[in-house]
């Protein structure tokens, strides 16, 4: 009887817990940037790509944006895409970007329509470093710096 009760409890816990699909090792990412251009992560093969989830209200996100921009500008084999994980109006994000310009494209993903191949961020900023082979090389939760990126890439 004790075994049956334990089994029943485990089954109930399994049903109550949300089930998440594992993020693919080689994720795809096709979005339209805020300037209306298509972005396809697959076209970046052969380069390192920083996929940075951020929001206009996230102070650490805003602080790291110039570092990411500088890193991309000084490393020819590295590109980036900023994912505004934000329900703010696109026009407001564009106005925000006019004050916080970066050298990489920005796309918006709303919380009700997350990217299918990337885990939903548990906190912001969240960054994925995609290797030249298209596979996730490193996942960062929290702010990143040029030093962290250099260490992860090996430069």
Furnish the topology, listing elements before pairings.
Elements: H1 2-16, E1 30-32, E2 38-40, E3 48-54, H2 59-74, E4 78-85, H3 90-99, E5 106-109, E6 126-130, E7 136-141, H4 146-153
Parallel strand pairs: 3-4, 4-5
Antiparallel strand pairs: 1-2, 3-6, 6-7
Q: What's this model, at a glance?
A:
The chain has four helices and seven strands.
* Secondary-structure-derived class: alpha/beta
- The spatial strand order of the largest sheet comes to 5-4-3-6-7
Query: What count of domains describes the coordinates?
Result: 1
> CATH topology, which one?
Glutaredoxin
H-E string: HEEEHEHEEEH
**What's the alpha carbon Rg, rounded to whole Å?**
18 Å
* Average of the residue pLDDT scores: 88
Under the CATH scheme, the architecture is 3-Layer(aba) Sandwich
- What is the share of helical residues? 25-40%
Strand content: 15-25%
Characteristics:
155 residues; alpha/beta; Glutaredoxin; five-stranded mixed beta sheet; two-stranded antiparallel sheet; 4 helices; 32% helix; 23% strand; globular; disordered N terminus
What features would you describe in this structure?
With 155 residues, the protein is an alpha/beta fold. The chain has a single domain, classed as Glutaredoxin, CATH 3.40.30.10. Helix content is 32%, strand content 23%. It is built from four helices and seven strands, in the order αβββαβαβββα. The chain has helices at 2-16, 59-74, 90-99, 146-153, and strands at 30-32, 38-40, 48-54, 78-85, 106-109, 126-130, 136-141. The strands form two sheets. It has a five-stranded mixed beta sheet, covered by helices on one side. The radius of gyration is 18 Å and the shape is globular. It starts with a helix and ends with a helix. Mean pLDDT is 88; it is low at 2-20.
